[in-house]
Design a protein that fits this description.
alpha+beta; four-stranded antiparallel beta sheet; 52% strand; single chain; elongated; three-stranded antiparallel beta sheet
């Protein structure tokens, strides 16, 4: 696949996500979500969400990027640490469109 085609696929995916996406964080028992802001640069897509002072105050062990129609775009289980009341955390989910 050409670089131009990969860029076009990223643009189309970015446009779809800009219509509505969220990042969900979880500890396996509770979860919280925040709207995702979507940026596209070439074949790179970056989803960013801000969890404010009162949101998602628990130990984060996974995150999901999903569209508002429920499609899971990316999922990762990782120890993100414990967000405490009063803290503001920004979470970025980078995606790269690559040829199969």
């Amino acid at each position: 696949m050409t670089a131009q085609a990969l860029t076009k696929m990223a643009q189309l995916t970015g446009d779809w996500l800009k219509a509505g996406a969220e990042i969900v964080v979880s500890d396996g028992q509770q979860s919280a979500s925040a709207p995702a802001l979507i940026g596209v640069d070439g074949a790179q897509i970056l989803a960013t969400a801000v969890f404010d002072e009162e949101a998602a105050n628990f130990h984060w062990t996974s995150r999901i990027l999903r569209s508002t129609d429920g499609t899971v775009v990316d999922e990762l289980e990782e120890d993100y640490g414990t967000k405490k009341l009063g803290a503001v955390w920004t979470l970025e989910v980078p995606l790269e469109v690559v040829a199969p």
